[in-house]
Write a structure and sequence with these properties.
The chain is an alpha/beta fold. The chain is built from 18 helices and 14 strands. It has helices at 12-21, 33-44, 67-79, 93-107, 124-146, 153-156, 158-165, 179-187, 209-216, 242-255, 280-286, 299-302, 317-324, 356-391, 405-410, 423-427, 429-435, 463-478; strands spanning 57-58, 117-121, 169-174, 195-197, 199-200, 203-207, 221-228, 258-262, 294-298, 310-314, 395-398, 415-420, 440-446, 449-455.
């Protein structure tokens, strides 16, 4: 993998110029291909940020597209396949998708045969919707079965199925969930308040098993357990070790629940070698994920393929087909007895682009060793950033500020959150860092106060080079050498 160098943020002058060139009304005759191309290249492209091209964009966890993934994505656009129905006598597109998903399972040490429901989505948000939709179907059907009845949300609708199952509420039990979990709850008709915090008060990212079982035991209630691996704001994992997730699995089986894992940030940790003790805490966070019923992930984070690309893995193909089957649409049916299911019957989209091609190309090109190299460099940079912040008199490393330095650093994965000790500087910290336009961080909060966040996700990470620039920027901010971005 070679390194590309590009600006992190365009200058304000370039942004204003681009805005001034945008068409304000539709031309009757059009400006033509050549002029439109020049407009895009000369006016618009220079005003786009470097969230994918720059290794120093640490804001939204876009990732960044590797050269082979970019090449494959261009082919996907040129060939413009409609990857919805499995028609192996007409195109190899769905075979490529199936192969890509099998390789992806192999990358993170999953047996593909354990996850017969595998498909690509627009991202982890859509994947969470798919996983929780399957969970919703399962828990209602299981509650009905335990009452000697039969119910299906896909067939009967949520209200009728819940009534048949004698269920008054469906809850999603979790700790510090990503916002997309609440969004999925709203989309699925469960509501934001269905997302219930069962965390340990002393460690908000971790489960309180007492609170979890108490919530599971509520009468006339069906539950989905959502595990964050890892949490977006801190990079910390909700579970630690195989024994913990085994205990959660036992509770889920006891109460007829579904376990869904939001692994958009953490799944790639499964590549790390168990022989290296410096990764032991992280590996404990992803131990036992194979015990889940569904797992949502982001390929643009995990593999650094073009934005957008997510995936969902689940163990129940029949549940997925019950929820997402296109009924009474003969023209959408596969003409083959091939075991590969048509993607439109196991996911949200009927119209979908060939996201699998960049995934397949990237996995083929780089293999497990290539992606292990990427994640180890990302962790090394994250820990180096954290160590610098922890030793700097003007900054405070979060979230475990009261613990020992060695413990704080051992828990650093790919996210570093911190704040300035000076309250006035802290109120403008993110704006001042980004105002220098040498790197980009995102704003967040910790314990009700403003904070800043590095999210290291790009394949182009160079620890020595990037750390030097980060140190320079952080010191310049403290010295008053930047102005806030307006």
């Amino acid at each position: 993998m070679s390194v590309q160098q590009d600006l992190v943020l365009p200058s304000r002058d370039v942004l204003e110029r681009a805005r001034s060139t945008l068409l304000t009304s539709l031309p009757s005759e059009g400006i033509g291909h050549e002029q439109a191309q020049k407009h895009l290249e000369n006016d618009i492209v220079p005003a786009l940020n470097g969230n994918s091209k720059s290794p120093r964009y640490y804001g939204f966890v876009t990732g960044g597209s590797t050269p082979i993934a970019t090449f494959a994505d261009k082919l996907a656009v040129e060939e413009d396949q409609n990857v919805q129905v499995h028609l192996p006598n007409e195109t190899v597109a769905t075979n490529v998708e199936d192969a890509a998903l099998r390789l992806l399972c192999d990358l993170v040490n999953f047996n593909p045969s354990d996850w017969p429901h595998r498909t690509f989505t627009t991202g982890a948000t859509a994947s969470n919707v798919v996983g929780l939709a399957c969970g919703r179907e399962h828990v209602i059907a299981e509650a009905a079965r335990r009452n000697g009845k039969e119910a299906s949300i896909a067939r009967d609708g949520l209200l009728v199925a819940a009534q048949k199952a004698q269920i008054h509420q469906i809850q999603i039990l979790t700790t510090v969930p990503h916002s997309s979990i609440r969004k999925a709850a709203s989309i699925l008709g469960l509501g934001h308040t269905a997302v219930v915090d069962v965390s340990d008060p002393s460690m908000p990212h971790r489960f309180s098993h007492e609170a979890l079982e108490k919530a599971l035991a509520l009468p006339n209630t069906a539950s989905i357990i959502s595990i964050s691996a890892a949490e977006v704001n801190t990079g910390l994992f909700a579970t630690t070790g195989l024994s913990e997730i085994t205990a959660i699995r036992s509770l889920a089986d006891k109460y007829g629940s579904w376990i869904h894992v939001d692994a958009a940030f953490g799944l790639q940790a499964r590549l790390l070698p168990s022989s290296d003790p410096s990764y032991s805490t992280i590996l404990e966070g992803v131990a036992g994920l194979e015990l889940a019923d569904s797992i949502a992930g982001d390929a643009h984070k995990l593999l650094n393929v073009p934005y957008d690309c997510g995936f969902i893995l689940s163990k129940s193909l029949s549940t997925a087909q019950q929820v997402f089957q296109n009924p009474n649409a003969a023209y959408l049916s596969s003409s083959s007895d091939d075991p590969i299911p048509s993607p439109l019957n196991i996911g949200l989209e009927n119209s979908r682009r060939f996201r699998a091609l960049p995934v397949y190309a990237s996995l083929a090109a780089h293999g497990k060793a290539g992606y292990l190299d990427v994640i180890t460099r990302q962790i090394a940079l994250s820990r180096a950033i954290a160590a610098h912040i922890d030793s700097h008199p003007a900054y405070e490393l979060l979230p475990l500020a009261s613990s020992s330095t060695s413990l704080r650093l051992s828990r650093i994965y790919v996210i570093v959150i911190f704040r300035a000790k000076d309250a006035e500087l802290n109120s403008e910290l993110v704006k001042r860092i980004n105002g220098l336009r040498k790197l980009y961080v995102s704003g967040t909060q910790w314990e009700g106060k403003a904070a800043a966040r590095f999210a290291v996700a790009n394949w182009q990470v160079d620890v020595e080079r990037d750390l030097a620039i980060i140190k320079e920027v952080l010191q310049e901010v403290v010295s008053g050498g930047s102005t806030p971005v307006v």
